[in-house]
């Protein structure tokens, strides 16, 4: 390349497949987007000191090494995306302040460490997404104030600790999703206010999870599939919203689940498959609804289930297969419908079951094979319909039902004494 241009313009050498070597001289200060994109034959790149902004080498798959000069202050969006031939480590120079979106996306050939200097303040969305070969720790320095989502998604090769900048206030959607190799504890910094959708989904190597009381919102699937978490899960009272599937499949927790007092709704599948929780499960009184499958398969609980007194709705399969609960099951007075399979195979409950006077409908399989429930069951006059298999497998001595209640076939065990009043 001659020594005269100051800027290499957009698409200047786009898809020049026969180009094998490029030397960027010192007087070039900027390379625009697309300048050398898809030059698949390029196997040698020398960038001289002096350049400030780098763009335009995406899909240059023949490159196997990258040295970014110390003069660079910005690595542009998509600058090296799809350059799958890079190997070794990647050290970002100490003068860089911004790494653009998708800057290194899909650079799966790196096999060493990623070093981000404390000069960087912003990392764009998807900047390192799919860089599955990086190893060791990932340290995001405290200088970083902005990350725009999916920044490290699919970086499954990191096998050390994750240290997140204390200057961040949010963790974006899909930020670290699929980073299954991280080890040690996941410590959310104390300035974080919300944790984005699928932010840590399938990060199965973490051990303990520490959520600070600065967090107010946890989006859907935020920690889905993080099966390595152990110990207790304490969600601070500052949290007012937890999205669906947020902790689905976090089967490694081995202690208590503490649900925040200010939560009003437990969304669908929020804790589904969290089979390791034990002790009591207390649903705080501010909770008014629990959506479908919320606690399905949480069969490790060994204590009481204490439901919110203000609960009006239980969703389909809410506590399905939670077979470890013990003690009596107390249905809150404000419940109107006990939904399909709500307590399906919750075989550990014991004693009498009291259906409150506000209940109008008991759906199919609602208490199916709750074999520990016994004694006399009185269905209140408010109940208009009981669906099939609602109480099959419950060991009641007798059942009393209003003559105005519609009872589908096989709602109760065959041979049980049923009195209509």
Features:
single chain; five-stranded parallel beta sheet; 0% helix; 19% strand; elongated
Order of strands in the sheet with most strands: 22-24-26-27-28-30-32
**Major sheet attributes:** 7 strands, parallel
Which class of secondary structure composition applies to the elements?
Answer: mainly beta
Count of DSSP strands? 33
Helical stretch tally: 0
Helical fraction equals under 10%
What does this protein structure show overall?
The strands form eleven sheets. A seven-stranded parallel beta sheet has the order 22-24-26-27-28-30-32, with no helix packed on it. A five-stranded parallel beta sheet has the order 5-6-8-10-12, with no helix packed on it. It is elongated, with a radius of gyration of 29 Å. 50% of the residues are buried. With 421 residues, the protein is mainly β. The protein is built from no helices and 33 strands. The mean pLDDT is 94.
Explain the layout of strands and helices:
Elements: E1 7-8, E2 21-24, E3 30-31, E4 44-47, E5 53-54, E6 74-75, E7 90-91, E8 98-99, E9 114-115, E10 122-123, E11 138-139, E12 146-147, E13 162-163, E14 170-171, E15 186-187, E16 194-195, E17 209-210, E18 217-218, E19 233-234, E20 241-242, E21 257-258, E22 265-266, E23 281-282, E24 289-290, E25 305-306, E26 313-314, E27 337-338, E28 361-362, E29 374-378, E30 385-386, E31 395-401, E32 406-407, E33 417-420
Parallel strand pairs: 1-3, 2-4, 5-6, 6-8, 7-9, 8-10, 10-12, 11-13, 14-16, 15-17, 16-18, 18-20, 19-21, 22-24, 23-25, 24-26, 26-27, 27-28, 28-30, 29-31, 30-32, 31-33
């Amino acid at each position: 390349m001659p020594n005269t241009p100051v800027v290499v313009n957009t698409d200047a050498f786009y898809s020049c497949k026969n180009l094998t070597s490029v030397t960027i001289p010192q007087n070039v200060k900027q390379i625009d987007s697309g300048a050398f994109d898809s030059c698949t034959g390029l196997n040698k790149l020398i960038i001289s000191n002096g350049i400030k902004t780098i763009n335009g080498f995406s899909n240059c798959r023949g490159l196997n090494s990258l040295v970014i000069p110390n003069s660079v202050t910005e690595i542009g969006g998509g600058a090296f995306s799809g350059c799958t031939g890079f190997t070794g480590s990647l050290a970002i120079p100490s003068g860089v302040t911004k790494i653009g979106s998708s800057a290194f996306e899909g650079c799966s050939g790196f096999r060493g460490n990623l070093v981000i200097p404390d000069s960087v303040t912003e990392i764009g969305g998807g900047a390192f997404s799919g860089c599955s070969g990086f190893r060791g720790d990932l340290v995001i320095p405290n200088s970083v104030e902005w990350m725009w989502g999916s920044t490290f998604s699919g970086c499954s090769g990191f096998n050390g600790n994750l240290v997140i900048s204390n200057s961040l206030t949010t963790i974006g959607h899909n930020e670290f999703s699929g980073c299954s190799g991280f080890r040690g504890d996941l410590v959310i910094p104390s300035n974080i206010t919300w944790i984005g959708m699928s932010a840590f989904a399938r990060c199965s190597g973490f051990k303990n999870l520490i959520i600070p009381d600065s967090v107010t919102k946890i989006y859907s699937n935020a920690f889905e599939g993080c099966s390595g978490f152990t110990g207790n899960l304490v969600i601070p009272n500052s949290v007012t919203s937890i999205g669906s599937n947020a902790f689905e499949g976090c089967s490694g927790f081995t202690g208590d689940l503490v649900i925040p007092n200010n939560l009003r709704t437990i969304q669908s599948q929020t804790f589904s498959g969290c089979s390791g929780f034990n002790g009591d499960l207390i649903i705080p009184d501010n909770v008014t609804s629990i959506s479908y499958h919320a606690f399905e398969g949480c069969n490790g609980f060994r204590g009481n289930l204490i439901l919110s007194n203000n609960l009006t709705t239980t969703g389909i399969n809410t506590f399905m297969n939670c077979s470890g609960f013990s003690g009596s099951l107390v249905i809150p007075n404000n419940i109107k419908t006990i939904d399909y399979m709500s307590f399906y195979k919750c075989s550990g409950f014991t004693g009498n079951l009291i259906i409150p006077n506000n209940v109008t409908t008991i759906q199919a399989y609602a208490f199916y094979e709750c074999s520990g429930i016994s004694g006399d069951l009185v269905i209140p006059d408010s109940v208009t319909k009981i669906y099939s298999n609602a109480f099959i497998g419950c060991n009641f001595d007798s059942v009393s039902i209003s003559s105005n209640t519609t009872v589908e076939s096989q709602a109760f065990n065959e041979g049980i004494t049923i009195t209509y009043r």
